[in-house]
Amino acid sequence: MAAVAGGAVLLVACTVGEATPSTGPGTGSEVASSEEGPSPLEVTDSTTQQQLPRTVELGELLESEFGVTAEEMRKAVDRARADVMRRCLVMEGWDVDEGLIGPEFFADPQPPAGGSAAGASVVAGRIQLVETGDVEGDDEVAEDPQLATPEYRMDVRRCLDEAVDAIADPVGAASQWLDAELGDVHARVGSDPRMVEADAQERRCLREAGGDPYATLNEIVDAAGAVFGEYVEGSRSREETSEVLRDLQRREEEVLAAIAPCLEARLAVEQEVAAEYEAEWLEENGERLAAFIADLGDEVAALADHLVTTPSSDGS
After folding, report:
1. What is the phi/psi pair of residue 21, to 5°?
2. N or C, fewer C-beta in 10 Å, the chain?
3. Is 38 inside a domain boundary?
4. Residue 181 included in any domain
5. Looking at the 3D structure of the chain, how many domains does it have?
């Protein structure tokens, strides 16, 4: 079923502000200078950089503790938040179709081919919202005529905020806690000699690609944010907004394709080094992590009415 998949997430996230860039290795924030000059990876508030790949398996720990997979928990959170959101919109006097304002509204937008560096998923997500298409790319469009009303879009944004505040996300909480705990670990990864060399190699590769690709990507994401904001405010039509965003996405994909080999080479080293450092952290802090997950019991229990578990392969 086509729906406004991922739309509400982008409606809020893209008009309020972008995701905060990581300060771990791979963002460029830890590289001051070298004999070849400063890193070209400029981190700004509007740039979604690749984040350090985390090797600690949170999903396995959550399922072991609660008997529910992380994916099932995420879907339950989406269902519960959709219920809150629909009630909020009804209170504002809007007609609410469960097929349009459902769990899909909270689904994470899928990034386009080319990776997640520098906001690729941000531009694609805006297109998904504006065109109100299915997240899988179906041609069928589930159209909510109320989306043409700026007041409705603003109420959707406010009601989504209310839904997110009302329903806790245990998977997100565990992930945020772990990312915070691993901050110092990832800083050490960035100063590892193997990463210093990988960063230098990436800078050489990016220079050979020509220009300043990250500055270009920043400009594209900023432009997409401005256009999307005008659409939300009602000063741009859906058709015009979609056309501009698709042009920006094409430009973005061209840049990403050009720098992909540079990123992949550094990322391969980064994954290997990070896995070593995180394994050391887990050996020393495994009990603390398990205790934090156990403390999420109330949040998981609150999702009971919205959990739809998948039977295991043995039928249990």
Report:
1. -65, 150
2. C
3. no
4. yes
5. 1
